[in-house]
Amino acid sequence: MKTEIKTITLGLALAVGGGLTSIAIYKQFESPTKNYVQNHELSSNNHFTSNNLDVVQPTNLEIAANRSINAVVHVKTEILSNRPVDPFFQYFYGKRQQPQLAKSSGSGVIISNDGFIVTNNHVIDKAQKISITLNNNKSYDAEVIGTDPNTDLALLKIDEEELPFIVYGNSNDINIGEWVLAVGNPYNLTSTVTAGIVSAKSRDINILQNDPYSGMSAIESFIQTDAAVNPGNSGGALVSSTGELIGINSAIQSKTGSYSGYSFAIPVNIVKKVVKDLKEFGNVQRAFIGVSIRNLDESLAKEIGIEDINGVYINETIESGSAAQAGIKSGDVIKMVGSKTIKNVTELQEQISQFRPGDKVMITLNRDGELKELPVVLKNQNGNEDVIDNSINKSLKLLGAKIIDASDKELKQLKIKQGVKVAELYSGKLRSVGVREGFIITSINRTSVSTVEDLTTIINNARSGIFIEGIYGNGRREYFAFGV
User: What is the mean pLDDT of residues 29-44?
Assistant: First the structure.
């Protein structure tokens, strides 16, 4: 009997032990896969390591939402409509039809506790009145500190203190696949948060226009995401999973005008620089290398004998420009700006846009198969390192022209001592009175003009009209007059 009991007991023990061993073996192979399936839709951080599944906790976006939602505001504008006057209205009612105010809205982001707000330029462009509504429903009138159509950014200010604001992140450090939040007011739905991932970086979607007055090219290097963005989100925040501002939502790609898969945000590193310039100077200080460039492709790389097609090819350098003075030559390929690798023209423009004239940057380039590092001192649109005063921009906008100093060669050929040249014409006073490109202005209101600064000083001090004297390249003298 005792022998039978021992046999039964031993059998049970072996059975239980075998069962536990089977469960352990099953768990060893089943658990990671099961956990991966359960967590895969919640986390962008899951990844394969040495053919095993490395499981981490999903990103918690609640913290990011809480840190940002109260700092995103509702921007409401009133704009005079362009609706034509109805002749039947005037005929029957015998009075002039009044222009109508069109109302629109977008979003903005509080970037400091003393009331500075950044939004898109297209949200407030031509607005007669701008009001800001906070997440607590308090409303304020807003003042425009400055705008920059080249990046589609505008800086506003409201009279309030101790406001919630979003801290700047670093858009150079974000990665494709990283979780982000879009915060804004789509369709007037206040404080709406949507989530997505960074789909791509440095996107140029050809949506911004060049500045019609200065002729400066637009800067497009958008962060592309799949977070849902709709009309009303413009000017709102693109936020990292840690709650930092990494972009300003600006555009969507859609055939219907509503979200259809992709949205685009201005990188915060561009935003930071534009905001700083607008605060200090009232206008953006654009820096230039002084080169004509193009993207590398397989055909060009083969032609110049390199295998790596990442970088920006230099067609030519501008005489006396920053690049030429630093020793950069035609045929060089720009590989890095500072510590940032450059793959294409869009990335190069994004990096240079973060600097001011007079700043020194290290450019790494490929020349004949060898890497060279050269220090480059950047210049402004006029070819010097000076800060451009906002009064200059106002004057150039009034004239509707790009004005540059006439060269010594031109002055000598025309036998004149001084003058500034109308390099390009846009919509403005000069075109309206018949000035053509190439005209050299020698005096304004009987005062000699030697530099662009002379021109702007005279125009800004004018009280009634402007009388311009000058000469064309063929030696023909002309005179023009207009009111201010």
Answer: 34
- Choosing from 68, 107, 202, 234, the catalytic residue is 234
Please name every residue paired with 118 in a beta bridge, in sequence order, or none if there are none: 109, 155
Active-site annotation holder among 44, 68, 105, 152:
152
Mean pLDDT to the nearest integer, 373-397 = 84
Q: What is the per-residue pLDDT across 255-302, written as a single tens digit (0 to 9) for each?
A: 777 777 889 999 999 999 999 999 999 889 989 999 999 998 888 888
| Gap between the Cα atoms of 332 and 323, Å rounded | 11
Residue at 440 is within a domain: yes
On average, the pLDDT of the chain sits at 83
Among 105, 107, 122, 250, the active-site one is 122
Is 234 considered catalytic here? Answer: yes
The per-residue pLDDT for 43 is: 33
**Full-model pTM:** 0.73
Percentage of the chain surpassing pLDDT 90?
Answer: 56
Of 269, 284, 299, which closes a domain? 284
Establish whether 152 is a catalytic residue. yes
Same domain, 335 and 243: no
Mean pLDDT of 441-447: 94
Q: Which residue range is the domain that position 313 belongs to?
A: 291-377
> Using one digit for the tens of pLDDT, what is the confidence trace for 152-180?
999 999 999 999 999 999 999 999 999 99
The CATH number for 302's domain is: 2.30.42.10
User: Is 239 among the domain residues?
Assistant: yes
Q: What is the mean pLDDT of residues 199-203?
A: 93
Look at residue 331 in the predicted model and tell me its pLDDT: 93
454: annotated active-site residue = no
Judge if 434 and 317 occupy the same domain: no
Burial of 261 (0-12, 13-18, 19+ CB in 10 A): exposed
User: Are 130 and 207 part of one and the same domain?
Assistant: yes
